[in-house]
Fold each of these.
Amino acid sequence: MPESYKSIIKKLDVNTTFSVYTVPSATTAILQLATFANVDASNSDSVEFCVRKSGDAADVFFVKGPTVPFATTFRFDGPIVLNAGDILKIKAATANRIDVTIHLLEIS
């Protein structure tokens, strides 16, 4: 079973929920780490991080609403196992304050 490390880097430039990653078919992904860096020099912001499991109608939140103080980083550690078709979603309360980096391992 081949393994492939992936890094996803995204500037949250809108304040709507964004689907950042979908697990490919015939693949399992292990979410290892997600960081939410507040790049604003003077304002805090809040974030949401969730998954929509394949075939489900609702999102399940890993975190909802933690405040990321200005010029700091919020860290979410795995491992979280994701299956084919699962969708990772992210959102910041304010556009252009949060940069997200997600590290995962794909196994196919």
Amino acid sequence: MVEEWIKKLTNALDKFIAGEQLPEDERIMVASLIYATLKHLKDFNECNEKLKEVEEKCTKNLDELKNKLDELQKELEKEKEVEEKLRTLDNLIKIMEANPRLLPKN
């Protein structure tokens, strides 16, 4: 039954495209298909607009996250530098404690 309806619709569309006069039942089929197509295109366009809005928000959020990540990486680099300086200072203290003659005299 569906296959038969599809064949009728296909024939009706061929006639419509060729500019032939269509009987009422074929006009209804073609008009229904055109209406449904336009309705779905409208729905598709609305969904597409919403998708664009979501994409813009996601892009904005991603940019913000990238900036935060850059800031965190800079902070981490500073912390590593401080950690390295503290290790150096700790090593100097150990050396001075191992060699008391290096300590300043009071």
Amino acid sequence: MDIRKTEVSLIKKRWENIKSKNGEERKKELMILLRMIYPLIADSRGREVLELYTKLKGSDEALKEAEGFLEEVIRSLE
């Protein structure tokens, strides 16, 4: 069994479920997804993940930016 495929599958499921969440719960889910994605893309885009995670931790203003980034990255993992 390929661990990477399993991780990608879990990330995609969480991503689809995030659309039904609001507010603080949505923010927490985005932060979890960033932590899940980091090991898969650390070599190429790790710095971006860390910066977004830090922004999200500090304020809600980075929600749209994080969602856009995650959408792009999740599509590239397929």
Amino acid sequence: MAHYVTGAALTEATWQRSADPQAQTEARRHITANPAAYPTLNSSGHLDTARWSDDDLFESGLDLILAGTPRQDGE
């Protein structure tokens, strides 16, 4: 869980907040042109900003992590 939250914070700080739009476009183009090198990014839909807002993407990932985390007895 900590790695997910840390990764999301780093991504937001470096990618969404400080990268110029042209650099983001070029990065998306590179990633989608090389699906074998970036299979998770290509198949996840993470690059589809029309489909996922930053908040929706974070919450969806968090829901998946929590759904796969076993509950302790008594909770």
